Amino acid sequence: MAAKNRRIVLAARPHGEPTLQNFRLEEAVVPTPRDGEILLRTRWLSLDPYMRGRMSAAKSYAAPVGIGEPMTGGTVSEVMRSEHPDFPVGTLVQAFGGWQDYSVSDGKGLRKVDPAVAPPTTALGVLGMPGMTAYTGLLNIGEPKPNETVVVAAAAGPVGSLVGQIARIKGARAVGIAGGPEKCAYLTRELGFDAAVDHRSDDLPGALAAACPNGIDVYFENVGGAVFDAVLPLLNDFSRMPVCGLVAAYNATELPPGPDRSPLLMRAVLTKRLRMQGFIVWDFASHIDAFEREVGGWIADGSVTYREDVVEGLENAPEAFIGLLKGRNFGKLVVHVA
Amino acid sequence: MAAKNRRIVLAARPHGEPTLQNFRLEEAVVPTPRDGEILLRTRWLSLDPYMRGRMSAAKSYAAPVGIGEPMTGGTVSEVMRSEHPDFPVGTLVQAFGGWQDYSVSDGKGLRKVDPAVAPPTTALGVLGMPGMTAYTGLLNIGEPKPNETVVVAAAAGPVGSLVGQIARIKGARAVGIAGGPEKCAYLTRELGFDAAVDHRSDDLPGALAAACPNGIDVYFENVGGAVFDAVLPLLNDFSRMPVCGLVAAYNATELPPGPDRSPLLMRAVLTKRLRMQGFIVWDFASHIDAFEREVGGWIADGSVTYREDVVEGLENAPEAFIGLLKGRNFGKLVVHVA
Question: Would I find Transit peptide among this entry's keywords (chains A, B) (predicted)?
């Protein structure tokens, strides 16, 4: 056991794209759990786009990380010391340990991870927050019906890849948008998407239209920007749009140049009778058991597959995170910490 | 019975605000009903903002009126000749007769109007399409809960006034936005709104914020523009936004100047988890009996009141319609044709 707690803190708020200078690796004393608490050792740290939001001071659905505070993040952690009867030493848990070696928890919100059921890293991906985001948003807001067309961007990532696979399971046509031929081939050959569109295409609107001959009934929105611009004209009447992320805008330092196109968006909402709804996974917290049971079953019977992109070493988390916002990862990005 | 059928046709598509030159009063032969048809005499013609959309060639939820064709519109009409067993001569019906003295119908979509139950003009207002728009959109999409705050613009009009009154019936706080002190006083003194805000105020955002100390939970969107800009920062998490009209944009000839604020709108959808849904009244056609029964009951017991603005003479419909888009009417605008 290391004598020190390495932790990556927010050194400064980014202006635009985060850089390595926005993070600082520090060493602190390993904390001591009090009565009712446990000491957790981070085994794997999840890196996710929402963390860009936590680096900013702008009001959002969660408080920002303070300057000098450890970056927040989901982890798979192991209980090293326990003053809590429910979590004996050696227990593996899904926690919110942050970008650090050690954290202390009172047990609230922890979920035990059974490595006999699935690889522990899946608790951060297909069986964790990203998977549940896909499952709850698609089924509760998107409500895909047989033969409808479901479009999702960042489709090779942990959310998008599950959105497309669940859409297929529900009898819908799945069209994925991803960056580059390798990811696009993965979508159609390995995940069973009906079509894949490269967002780096010279003509994204044309390529997407060709991939969606019957228009779009569900657009699972996690990126915004140019992809959304290509989607909007293709949306069918009564289409649904779960909105869980806008990665393309996260690093923006100013609004795009004019004209102001928001009246166009509202006109589409009205004339096409769109339903657009923002959500975060915790809005559907009560669905977690159904999610684990159902997606766990689909993994077990082979109808859902997943891919992970594992980076070695906590010290490499900042660079990996910066790459995540640029789409450099291929699969769920996880840092192997210990 | 007049020997001629006066009708107002679309002479030219407007660029921006409609003018009298966009309309033309013609005389045609009174049509003759064939077997299974009836000849209808227009008694009252409804004028509604959606008609601006029908004057444009842009794709929407309904086909545009063709150049030289009579303007479309809801009417209360009387059966003058009948070749249809269900509609004897003298029957009063809610029809889609258009801006003309006479029309022929095969009976499809007609609803009989009983003048003993309510004044026939209400079939074009509080008990017609505008009333049902308010009722279905507010209850099915807005879903107001007790003590929530419901905001509606064009609140002295037939849709907005019923939205606010139903919100009150459901235990919510109703805040109406209207143009000028007379309409605002009407909202609070006669309709029971909790607060009224004049959109001509020097500081609409400040006035609206003062009227909504607990934020906004439901915004019934029928105007867009500056009102929506004032509403957006006040929307609470999980608020709902039925969208049935965007009057402020109907006469726009180009998009507003930049920057492009649509990313701000999408960010609000995401971080506040807004639900925004476009609808037109026919999407809820199956609710018509419940609507008539329930709103009829509220009128009967005095918990809903309404106001009509009756213009005399078909020939004055164009000018009245132009005024409608500028908010010159006060109450449901109806043309008394015969």
Answer: no
Q: Name the residue type at position A223.
A: V
Contacts of A78 (CB under 8 A, 6+ apart): A40, A41, A43, A90, A91, A92, A93
SS3 (DSSP) at A247: helix
pLDDT at A288: 94
CB A216 within 8 A of CB A237: no
Strands (DSSP E) contained in chain B are: 4-10, 23-29, 38-46, 75-82, 92-95, 102-105, 111-112, 149-152, 173-178, 195-198, 216-220, 235-243, 275-278, 308-312, 332-336
Read off the pLDDT of residues A288-338 as tens digits, 9 standing for 90 and up: 999 999 999 999 999 999 999 999 999 999 999 999 999 999 999 999 999
Q: Distance from A269 to chain B by nearest Cα, in Å?
A: 5
The count of domains in chain A is 2
Claim to verify: residue B138 and residue B244 sit in the same structural domain: yes
CATH of the domain at A219: 3.40.50.720
Q: Chain B interface, mutation test: which of A276, A281, A282, most B Cβ atoms within 10 Å?
A: A276
User: Rounded distance, CA A299 to CA A310, Å?
Assistant: 20
CATH code of the domain containing B41: 3.90.180.10
Residues in B closer than 8 angstroms to A263, CB to CB, are 224, 246, 249, 252, 255-256
* A278:B274 CB<8 A: yes
A256/B258 touch (CB, cutoff 8 Å), yes or no: yes
Shared-domain flag, residues B220 and B239:
yes
Residue ranges making up the domain that contains B276: 129-282
**3-state class of B171 per DSSP?**
coil
Please indicate, yes or no, if residue B146 is contained in any of the structural domains: yes
User: Is residue A160 in a domain?
Assistant: yes
What secondary structure letter does DSSP report for B234?
G
Q: What's phi and psi for A111, nearest 5 deg?
A: -130, 135
Residues 6+ apart with CB under 8 A from B45: B73, B74, B75, B97, B98, B99, B124, B314, B317, B334, B335, B337
Using CA atoms, how far apart are residues A324 and B12, in angstroms rounded to an integer?
54
What confidence category does residue B61 fall into, taking pLDDT thresholds of 50, 70 and 90? confident
Largest CA distance in chain B: 63
Q: Is B267's Cβ below 8 Å from some Cβ in A?
A: yes
Give the CA-trace dihedral at B293, B295, B299, B300, to 10 degrees. 20
Are residues B201 and B179 both part of a single domain? yes
Please tell me the distance in Å from A170's CA to the nearest CA on chain B. 24
Within a domain: B61: yes
pLDDT digits (tens, 9 = 90+) for A277-301: 999 999 999 999 999 999 999 999 9
If asked whether residues B234 and B172 sit together in one domain, one would say yes
A271 and A325 co-located in one domain: no
Whether A87 and A107 have beta carbons less than 8 Å apart is answered as yes
Same domain (yes/no): B252, B111: no
Is the Cβ of B142 closer than 8 Å to some Cβ of chain A? Answer: no
- If asked whether residues A264 and A332 sit together in one domain, one would say no
